[in-house]
Amino acid sequence: xxxxxxxxxxxxxxxxxxxxxxxxxxxGPQGEVIPVKDSSYLFNGTDLDGxxxxxxxxxxxxxxxxxxxxLGVGEGCTGITWKKEFPSVNYKVTLEAKRVTGNDFFCGMxxxxxxxxxxxxxxxxxxTVVGLSSINGRDASENETTTYMVFDRxxxxxxxxxxxxxxxxxxxxxxVVVDFARGNKILxxxxxxxxxxxFGIASWNTTAALKNIRVERIEK
Length: 220
Description:
The chain is mainly β.
């Protein structure tokens, strides 16, 4: 009888691990349970390891809370820049972002497209513009990738960016919002986000939250 009970406990523990996918979990600073993510995730859910708070100058506060990165409202850009290795082409970035307060972009993702930089703007120019900045010197508000979306405050949006040598695609909640064929067109970024290179995420006069930031290499 004494040997049966420990055996039952072992079986129950094994079943619980199977049901959770065998994923280990850590406790955050407030005691919340946070899954340990694999190496494709750029944010571990607990701190800014691998990131640097971008020194834009008049930026707002940046901190981690409840498994989210908070970009506080500042006078202009507030953001983070990835300081470790990052691919230059043939990769996919996925993340979730939301606008907490403010009326401008809550995800300005600066990224490499080969040797050139570019930015995906989500919710800019008064809150609704989505597009790439810049193409042949024209901003996200005035080039062929310009589109408009209404973004609710405090709602998470799933953002996906796919960068190949000849194309850049972006999806929001699985809807294609950018489908750009590069050709001979010149990509660049605005001076305001120069410090975000090679890969960084910023908001503009807006409090934003980010989570589940992930980069995966893809086939050509």
